[in-house]
Amino acid sequence: MTAAVALPVPVLTTARLILRGPEERDFEAVAAFGTSERSRWVGGPFNRFESWGRFLSGFGHWALRGFGYWTLEERATGRVAGRVGIIAHDGWEEPELGWHLFDGFEGQGLALEAAQAARAHAAQAMGLDGVISYIDPANTRSARLAQRLGARVERDGFLLGQPMQVWRHPRLNEARA
């Protein structure tokens, strides 16, 4: 193997998390999520090889778009808790704030903490304000998180042929003006 190329991913910190760029050492946690039923809300489950491809796409997204998913590292333990960030894949109408937590990390407010930090950074440093989140209508946990973030259902739509609700997040820059 050759030395890794570092991506210019900003590091964000919250009370309990470090939001950092993806690293190869994160793959086992990502693969465990991808191969589990928990990944159904993001198109899974995937086999390990498909999980690898999706993992690598995260690096490419940062390199191509200048934004993407941060890895959530628990400050107290160093464990990888999930991923949160802004993505705009081919076929997306506009940049999306997305999140997923890994097994054992739900119910602690980590997704809220990370999504608030990612959304604020995207608005302030990247000019991505008032982003959307695509949420499957059956994914009640994500809908509750979106509500806690102040997002509201804007319309029903489709993403990759699947029915989705498009949730609009409040513009943060206007709220501060």
* Biggest sheet: strand arrangement: 1-2-3-4-5
Name the poorly predicted regions.
none
Radius of gyration based on Cα positions: 15 Å
Task: Tell me the span between the first and last alpha carbons.
Answer: 50 Å
Structure description:
With 177 residues, this protein is an alpha+beta fold. It has a domain at 12-128: Aminopeptidase. 32% of the residues lie in helices and 25% in strands. The protein is built from five helices and eight strands, in the order ββααβββαβαββα. The strands form two sheets. It has a five-stranded antiparallel sheet with strand order 1-2-3-4-5, with helices on both faces. Helix 1 (27-34) packs across helix 2 (48-65). The longest helix has 18 residues, at 48-65. The radius of gyration is 15 Å and the shape is globular. The relative contact order is 0.14.
Fold topology:
Blueprint lengths: L11 E2 L3 E4 L6 H8 L13 H18 L3 E6 L5 E8 L8 E6 L8 H16 L6 E4 L4 H9 L3 E8 L2 E7 L3 H5 L1
Antiparallel strand pairs: 1-2, 2-3, 3-4, 4-5, 6-8, 7-8
Helix pairs in contact: 1-2
Give the key terms.
32% helix; Aminopeptidase; five-stranded antiparallel β-sheet; globular; 177 residues; three-stranded antiparallel β-sheet; alpha+beta; single chain
Concise structural overview:
Helix content is 32%, strand content 25%. With 177 residues, it is α+β, with helices and mostly antiparallel strands.
